[in-house]
């Protein structure tokens, strides 16, 4: 029996060995299409239909190709101009039509008509594709019959090439069920040659727990790797060791110079008016310039072309409303968004009713507006506008030896931005955008004191006024072109001209006995220009690159500064879900910010490069690995950045020092930062969120500060962790949580004190002490951490949707330090005292859509 079984096994083994050897031998003899057909007829169950004209086509078959798999067979034959059409068990081989057609058009939201930025448009036959630009435009070469279009959060759509024509518009509908898992395969998306880039949607931003009930885009950016918050509760941010002035914040292509409301506790960006947000931390494309550390590119909504819609919210701090709709249905639309705080409407009347001699109030408001008009299928015009203003004031009265003094102190600051854009499609491959821009930021500080003598009420007004103001304004014109050479080359080029007008600081005094006396820095003009060219190129099926150069120049007085800035990013795919990326970028910055503190006060002054103050320069190298598994994205990046020509105030100097020009108040130095960033993000499904960890180090070095020795940057924090979690419990209830941790801020504190050689006989001790400081920023505050929670309740109504959001900021009441000072009350036993201003803070808001 055993012998019989062994014989049977040997026979089977001999049969399969012989068959395999024979099939392998036959594979080696496949030199033409006719040989391939013979092989398939012998070793597969498929039936075939083909033209005799294909028989003599020469082939090369690699051993790793599985000829029993029709998909691999199709990939094998594509380079030889042969396509495979499967009809059940029948395989039809036919000569491919090599006529390359160009399909161009726009991808838009089916409901609103809004442009979809970064949508993937793919040739179904070859698998090659392109992404839509900022205005939803694409141009794709295809030799097949159909194209596929996809965008995150929208239904996948497949279209026939024959349906494409002039003014081709692809309208994508939103997915009906956002709670189900969505698998996005590599074949459905086009991986760009980019790194150190994160994109956020308003929907992501609005899901997070917020401070005082106000959704804030800039605070969401603080939760990303490589981005650090400034002071607690503020919207300021620092990227990869850079300063606050090194972030270029663009609103519809226009720079915003101060992005803070209420001393930075809120940002100027209303999330309801925003369509998309893109943060670039490194590997900067050549089309961007003018800052060293980051680009924040914000696009406002265009307005619904088909029907009227709106949304709004009522919170503890402010209320807002956004309305959009058609002016001329299908042709012209508008978007209008307004927001205002009502702190002054409640606090000030209550203070006056209580009979207080002192009233402190404040408010802010902002307005976003946009109109877009379709002139023709190839021409579109946009007009966008933003204006916002803050006002804080302090009024009090007191008697001073028979003289009543009424004092009013007030700070005001605000931005205005506007843009006029014209899109034009010259050909199926060439698209242009021309933009005229204007932006202005202005800061004003004033005090007025009125005196009145109690014994002479009829005396003339006696007063004293002090004013200080600073501003910067830009007028610019830029042209950007996108040329889709083919599916492997997207060429972008353009130019920009900007005229800066700056008034770093002017003081004005007047009184009842003195006319206006004005002194301070004169108005300064700075003219800046740049040209650029970049090519987003596919070097092979697995290798993509973005190679470009940015040339800029600026005229400062009699000096002209120029800068050549090479840029490149390389993306090498190692498998279907793994990529290695590398980048280098050089950046130049011709304007600077003199920072008085770390919380984004409006007293931070913008100043230009001059004959004495050189432009800031930086060089950054980055290397990273990224992977995608189902709906989870993972990336690890390391970077090293060098910065030159940085400026800081001299020790003891400040913006109100009026005895000297601002150039005489600053020191010049350099900086260096490096670190590693880890990011895991889940974008779809019932539970979404991300985990972010950053290890970093940032130093500064100035010849006349800290005795010329390097010292830690104010926001040098070794460890930063952010955990963001959102759960859609069901279609009505959402839960959000954010936990953050960071190493404490670097601060300058004394480590010992020595008594002065001055004797105070009344106190029987030394009058004062000399403090010893071991070095600039040589001490650390306590580590920072907090947990924010929120829960929202949605309900559909006959007019739309309403939502209640309840949240807790700093839910376990961690007293994080915002400031540390030396307590001098006990002369012989001095201690440090910590100031914390944000304990557990509950909030509630009511939101609605119609």
Automatic annotation (TrEMBL):
GO terms for cellular component: cell outer membrane. Pfam families: CarbopepD_reg_2, Plug. Residues 200-291 form the TonB-dependent receptor plug domain. GO terms for biological process: siderophore transmembrane transport. Keywords: Cell outer membrane, Membrane, Receptor, Signal, Transmembrane, Transmembrane beta strand, Transport. It is a multi-pass membrane protein. GO terms for molecular function: siderophore uptake transmembrane transporter activity. It is found in: Cell outer membrane. It comes from the Bacteria. Its main location: membrane. PANTHER family: HEMOGLOBIN AND HEMOGLOBIN-HAPTOGLOBIN-BINDING PROTEIN 1-RELATED (PTHR30069:SF29), TONB-DEPENDENT OUTER MEMBRANE RECEPTOR (PTHR30069). Belongs to the TonB-dependent receptor family. This is TonB-dependent receptor plug domain-containing protein. It comes from Dawidia cretensis.
């Amino acid at each position: 029996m055993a012998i019989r079984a062994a014989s049977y096994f040997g026979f089977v083994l001999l049969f399969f060995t012989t068959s395999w050897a024979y099939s392998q031998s036959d594979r080696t003899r496949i030199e033409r299409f006719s040989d391939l057909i013979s092989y398939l007829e012998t070793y597969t169950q498929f039936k075939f239909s083909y033209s005799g004209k294909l028989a003599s086509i020469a082939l090369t078959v690699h051993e790793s190709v599985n000829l029993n798999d029709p998909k691999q067979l199709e990939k094998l034959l594509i380079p030889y101009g042969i396509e495979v059409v499967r009809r059940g068990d029948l395989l039809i081989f036919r000569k491919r039509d090599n006529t390359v057609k160009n399909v161009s058009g726009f991808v838009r939201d089916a409901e609103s008509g809004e442009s979809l930025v970064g949508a993937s448009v793919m040739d179904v036959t070859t698998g090659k594709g392109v992404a839509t630009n900022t205005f939803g435009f694409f141009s794709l070469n295809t030799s097949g019959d159909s194209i596929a279009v996809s965008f995150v959060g929208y239904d996948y759509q497949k279209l026939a090439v024959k349906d494409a024509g002039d003014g081709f518009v692809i309208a994508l509908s939103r997915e009906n069920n956002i709670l189900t898992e969505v698998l996005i395969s590599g074949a459905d998306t086009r991986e760009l040659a980019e790194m150190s880039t994160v994109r956020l949607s308003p929907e992501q931003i609005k899901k997070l727990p917020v401070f005082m009930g106000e959704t804030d885009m800039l605070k969401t950016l603080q939760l990303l790797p490589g981005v650090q918050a400034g002071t607690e509760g503020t919207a300021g941010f620092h990227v990869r060791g850079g300063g606050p002035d090194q972030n270029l914040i663009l609103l519809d292509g226009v720079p915003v110079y101060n992005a803070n409301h209420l001393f930075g506790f809120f940002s100027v960006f209303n999330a309801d008016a925003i369509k998309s947000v893109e943060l670039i931390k490194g590997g900067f494309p050549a089309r961007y310039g003018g800052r060293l550390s980051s680009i924040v590119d914000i696009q406002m909504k265009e307005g619904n072309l088909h029907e009227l819609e709106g949304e709004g919210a009522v919170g503890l701090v402010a209320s807002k409303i956004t309305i959009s709709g058609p002016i001329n249905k299908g042709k012209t639309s508008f978007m209008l968004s307004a927001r205002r705080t009502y702190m002054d409407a409640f606090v000030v009347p209550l203070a006056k009713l209580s009979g207080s001699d002192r009233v402190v109030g404040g408010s802010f408001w902002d307005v976003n507006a946009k109109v877009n008009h379709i002139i023709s299928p190839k021409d579109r015009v946009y007009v966008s506008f933003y204006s916002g203003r803050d006002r804080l004031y302090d009024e009090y009265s007191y008697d001073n030896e028979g003289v009543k003094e009424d004092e009013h102190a007030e700070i005001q600051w605000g931005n205005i931005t506007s843009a006029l854009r014209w899109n034009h499609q010259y050909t199926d491959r060439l698209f242009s955008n021309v933009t005229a821009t204007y932006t202005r930021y202005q800061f004003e500080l004033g005090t007025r004191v009125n005196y009145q003598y109690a014994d002479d009420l009829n005396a003339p007004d006696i007063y004293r006024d002090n004013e200080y103001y600073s501003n910067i304004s830009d007028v610019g014109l830029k042209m950007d072109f996108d040329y889709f050479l083919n599916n492997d080359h997207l060429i972008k080029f353009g130019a920009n001209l900007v005229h800066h007008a700056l008034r770093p600081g002017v003081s004005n005094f007047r009184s009842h006995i003195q006319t206006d006396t004005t002194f301070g820095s004169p108005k300064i003009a700075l003219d800046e220009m740049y040209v650029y060219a970049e090519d987003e190129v596919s070097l092979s099926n697995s290798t993509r690159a973005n190679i470009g150069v940015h040339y800029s120049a600026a005229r400062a007085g009699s000096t002209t500064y120029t800068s050549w800035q090479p840029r490149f990013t390389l993306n090498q795919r190692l498998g279907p879900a793994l990529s290695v990326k590398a980048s280098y970028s050089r950046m130049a910055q011709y304007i600077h910010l003199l920072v008085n503190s770390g919380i984004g006060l409006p007293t931070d002054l913008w100043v230009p490069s001059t004959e004495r103050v050189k432009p800031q320069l930086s060089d950054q190298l980055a290397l990273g690995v990224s992977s995608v598994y189902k709906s989870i994205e993972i990336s690890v990046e390391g970077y090293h950045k060098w910065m030159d020509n940085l400026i800081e105030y001299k020790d003891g100097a400040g913006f109100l020092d009026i005895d000297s020009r601002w150039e005489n108040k600053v020191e010049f130095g350099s900086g260096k930062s490096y670190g590693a960033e880890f990011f895991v993000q889940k974008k779809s499904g019932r539970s979404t969120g991300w985990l972010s960890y950053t290890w970093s180090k940032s130093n500064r070095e100035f010849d006349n500060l800290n005795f010329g020795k390097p010292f830690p940057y104010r926001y040098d924090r070794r460890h930063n962790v952010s955990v963001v979690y959102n759960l859609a419990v069901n279609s009505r209830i959402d839960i959000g949580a954010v936990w953050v941790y960071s190493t404490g801020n670097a601060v300058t504190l004394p480590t010992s004190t020595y008594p002065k050689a001055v004797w105070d006989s009344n106190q029987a001790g030394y009058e004062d002490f000399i403090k010893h400081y071991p070095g600039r920023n040589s001490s650390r505050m306590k580590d920072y951490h907090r947990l924010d929670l929120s829960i929202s309740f949605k309900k559909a109504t006959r007019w739309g949707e309403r939502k209640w959001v309840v949240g807790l900021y700093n839910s376990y009441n961690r007293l994080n330090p915002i400031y540390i000072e030396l307590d001098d009350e006990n002369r012989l036993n001095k201690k440090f005292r910590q100031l914390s201003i944000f304990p557990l803070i509950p909030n509630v808001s009511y939101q609605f859509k119609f």
